[in-house]
Amino acid sequence: MARSAHPRNVGSHGIRTHMTLPMSEEFSGTRIAASARSTRRKPHFRVLRRLVSSPKGAIGLGIVAVMVFIALFGPFIAPLDPYKQDFMATLKGPSAAHWFGTDQLGRDVFSRILHGAHTSLGIGIGGVAVAFLFGVPLGLAAAWFRGWFDQLVMRAVDIMLSFPDIVFALALVALLGPSTMNVIIAVGTVSIPVFIRTARAVALSTLAEPFVEGSVALGCSPLRVMARHVLPNMAGILVTLSSLLFASTLLTASGLSFLGLGTQPPEPEWGTMLGESRSYIRSHPYMATFPGLFLAISALGFNLLGEELRNIYDPTAAKTRRAHWFGGLAKAARRKPVAAPTAIPDMPQDVLVVGRDLEVSYLTASGALPAVRGVNFTLRRGRMLAVVGESGSGKSTLLRAVGTILPRGQALISDGTLAIGGEDVSTMTPERLQQMRRKHIGVVFQDASSALNPVMTVGAQLIEAILSGNPMPKAQARSRAAELLAAVQIADPQERLDQYPHQFSGGMKQRIVIAIALAQNPDILLADEPTSALDVTIQQQILVLLRRMQQESRMAMMLVTHDLGLVSRYADDVAVIYGGRIVETGTVEEVFRNPSHPYTRALRAAAPRLHAPGEGKRLSAITGDPPMLGQFPPGCSFAPRCGRTHGRPLCQTQTPEPRPVGGKLVACHFAEEV
Ligand SMILES: Nc1ncnc2c1ncn2[C@@H]1O[C@H](COP(=O)(O)OP(=O)(O)OP(=O)(O)O)[C@@H](O)[C@H]1O
Questions:
Q1: Residues in domain ABC transporter (predicted)?
Q2: Which end of the chain has fewer CB atoms < 10 Å from its terminal CB, N or C?
């Protein structure tokens, strides 16, 4: 039965198991000498240098600089009074006396353009600022809170977008009255939905990234997650959007001025000037050409500038200028073990995580569907439990439940009990959960590339992980970050701290992810297919590293993997999961030496083994497909694919419960029939 989701998506449910192991409130991490140099800052003129070194950036910056200069100093450099009428010189074409000609009242068009720059660009910038300041926070809030708030915001956005910009802006100005300020409010309001949609879409995808989940797992607050990960990741797109909107805002504002609702004559403004030139467009085209040209050039300049800024702020798009680093592993010999965590005095017991009849469900259109169904397991200090099974069997869902990082609003613990350090997570407040994640749980995700924030240096990400649970001076945190990099065998750690993830190889990125997971000296380490994106030799190195650290620090570890070879080499215990249930569990030796469940046997037979008896034989595949979410057959879920069932009704009707068979727990009615 599904229950309402906890704000942090840990289900609240009625079942309570009395646990007596209180989790320590405080965890004193390794003390580090504050001898490191301070965090180096990137010089701000780096951006300027990059801008001027590219043709697009240089042109864009040049145009914007000229326009800003004109907006600021136009009145001082204008040769004539922009308001002065000369009825003897009306509608004169460009000449030495009037470079851009004169208008219907004999006013100097050039001087009016110089004076009008201030108002025109001011309206554009003001409109974008209004849209940005309201749209971005609303979009971020909608992505974070989801639910009814998201629905409300998005319906309002849909309604606003269903009107053409100019019509909506017209209605607003008609309501507020014609004035420059009201035009800014109107054109800004019209653009708010675009910012909301963009910010929400980017935030949603960024929040689903493993590196953000990692931050949530580290216990970072929503504001911090938004400020550190989501906003920097959308900086490029927001800058580009702002520049594009600047152009459209200028045009919409000009349209309003053209209709007489914007800046009022005799005030010079490019849109108003275009409006005034309407009647003379055929006979005296220069009247429209010059203000139009200034509008178009301004829009072009902001666009070019925005595009180049996007390239700069997205380092993954930028070409790596420096040579790649090659001599890594040779220098990495200076290995430095991570210090063992300080003992938690009031948590001496070995059992750190207990799952009892644990059920985890996804909230789908068809209701809450269980992906993990009544599993029992224990994570013990100093031991590694491997969770194996086919794709879709529920391994990652189980790991995320243990890490209290189930996707918000999508999954929840719907039944049973999960206790971490003796505390039932369903009774924990969001703050307690956050503290738990921050101090006691480290998570290593599958794909290191997406587990690291591409726009933050490795050092910044490590320092964030270190500081999230343990305030300390930045210099000390940097020193600790370098120590962690050295511990995961990355050479020249001080220099590497200032580099971005794309400057590291896949294996090194995964080492960094491991370093981040270990930043708080966690008691529990969760690794979800930590090596499946790596080649075989690197897989071995990473697993050796993980195993060494797990043993040195006596962490309880859960390893999710498809690779039975890795399990037999590195894990202590194994849980074989099928259709969301643990079908066989015990020590690796017991389970693999003499597998009892037909599914375990089939998995073993399907796993490639070098130098195994019968080498050269074809691998046997498991016939049929694993059950889909919500489509589990009655009785034993494996029965439709099982060679041992022989059509026996018991398998089709009664779900086998795990029972002791030869030192293991096996969920099969006929486990003894090996
Ligand atoms: N966000 C989600 N919404 C709905 N169903 C989901 C969601 N995530 C996973 N599932 C479903 O839950 C089931 C278990 O998925 P899970 O990712 O835990 O399996 P897995 O064993 O880890 O698979 P893999 O090895 O491919 O990662 C699958 O049927 C999957 O389709």
A1: 355-604
A2: N
